[in-house]
Amino acid sequence: MHLIGGAWVALVFDFIAKKFWNLSYHNLIVRIILGCGFVLIIGLLWEVFYEYLFLDFLVFKKHPIDQVFDPFNLPDTFRDLLNDIIGGVVVFYLLHLKEKNVKTR
Questions:
Q1: What is the predicted pLDDT for the residue at 18?
Q2: What does the CA dihedral 63, 64, 66, 70 come to, rounded to 10 degrees?
Q3: Mean pLDDT value across residues 17-37
């Protein structure tokens, strides 16, 4: 699920970057770094606000703060963020190949 989420956020970033910021995409590394930063920020916001605050605090009613921010849940959070970034990298690489292929025609 997080792979698809990271890919979707990467596509949104690509649209915003092309439409509003007019970024030049000659360098794949710069594109991946900026895009993955955006994917990581959105992933962090999702993890903090939805999974920790909404689910744990409001839905499952874990009111003591030590139960809400359970340290044993951190590996799951890191795995989710890594999957977000992997999805973003794959999308940026595929977009780069597509644009490179279009320019050579």
A1: 77
A2: -20
A3: 74
